[in-house]
Write a structure and sequence with these properties.
Blueprint (H helix, E strand, L loop, with lengths): L2 E6 L4 H6 L2 H9 L2 E6 L2 H7 L10 H18 L15 H13 L4 H13 L8 H10 L11 H18 L6 E4 L4 E3 L4 H8 L4
Parallel strand pairs: 1-2
Antiparallel strand pairs: 1-3, 3-4
Amino acid sequence: MAHIDYYFSTLSPFAYLAGGRLEEIAARHGASVTYKPLDIMALFPRTGGTPPKDRHPSRMAYRAQDLPRQAKRAGKPLNLQPAHWPTNAAPSSYAIIAAQAAGGGDMSKLVQAVLRACWAEERDIAEDEVIRDCLQEAGFDPDIANRGLLSGAEAYAANLEDAVAAGVFGSPFFVVDTGQSFFGQDRLEDLDLHLAGKL
């Protein structure tokens, strides 16, 4: 059975646009998934990337065109300039890490709820109330957000180091235990084909 390490940032619009397709693909092929939220702003300088605010205007102009196109293809609402972006991604990431450790809910639904809160609902994913709502929506105990902060912080930092070691440089990024990596929500079809033995 294949295993996928899913590296992503809770600030990433492209992780939002991935929706639940990763989980659908994993289920189709009997693959397991480990969710590894990370600090994307710390990842960029370590892997040759540039934070959006520092990118060349031509790159930002393309991003402003491409995101709405991809959102339309995915059938997902998108606010190109969310009211609370960027924000502190650590609290939502800690909650995802804690939920994964605790179990009992739907991880895909949780990740999507957090990303949707940022990119479609104009909510600040650094706020406790928003995080608790997302946990509850996904079937987790909302009090998870108040527990395990130290272990969450340690795992969040470890995810960044794991990502650098695995060759990850953006979000979303999918690393399969076969040695193959796939970057971007637009490579999920390739991941599907790879797990089917066709690519």
